[in-house]
């Protein structure tokens, strides 16, 4: 009789554990599907620039938690990295004899001065 009781308890325990495992597997499937949706949302929120460059200016609303950005507003201003650039520069008279047309030149930009715009 004791052997039968032990076998009955063993079977009952196995059935109980099987139900718990089944329930946990179902919950795991739900969590995994939720995780996949969240990963997809994260990937969709990445912003890629159409050009290689440096972020020059950031819209304040883009960095403010809960900030609102209108459809026509810029998120960032990107200064493109290009190898060829047209520059309007002032050359001191003492260096003018060292510069030739169509010659490659290396410029070091110390600062970028933007013209001030007066809004009337």
Explain the overall architecture:
The chain has one domain. The termini are far apart. It has 120 residues and is mainly alpha-helical. The chain contains 2 helices and 2 strands; from the N terminus they run H-E-H-E. A two-stranded antiparallel sheet has the order 1-2. The model has no long low-confidence stretch (mean pLDDT 81). Helices cover 39% and strands 9% of the residues. This is Type-I secretion protein. It comes from Salmonella enterica I. InterPro entries: MFP, Single_hybrid_motif.
**Secondary-structure element order, as H and E?**
HEHE
In total, the number of domains comes to 1
- Give unreliable regions as ranges: none
Query: What value does the Rg take, in angstroms?
Result: 34 Å
Intertermini distance: 101 Å
Mean pLDDT: 81
Helical stretch count?
Answer: 2
Structural class by secondary-structure content:
mainly alpha
The percentage helix is 25-40%
Give the amount of beta strand, in percent: 5-15%
Protein name: Type-I secretion protein
InterPro entries: MFP, Single_hybrid_motif
């Amino acid at each position: 009789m004791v052997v039968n009781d032990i076998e009955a308890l063993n079977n009952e325990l196995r059935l109980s554990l099987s139900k718990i495992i089944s329930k946990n597997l179902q919950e795991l499937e739900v969590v995994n599907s939720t995780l996949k949706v969240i990963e997809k949302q994260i990937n969709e929120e990445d912003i890629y620039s159409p050009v290689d460059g440096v972020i020059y200016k950031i819209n304040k609303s883009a960095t403010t938690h809960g900030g609102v950005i209108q459809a026509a507003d810029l998120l960032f201003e990107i200064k493109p990295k290009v190898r060829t650039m047209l520059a309007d520069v002032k050359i001191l008279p003492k260096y003018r004899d060292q510069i030739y047309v169509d010659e490659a030149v290396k410029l070091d930009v110390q600062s970028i001065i933007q013209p001030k715009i007066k809004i009337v």
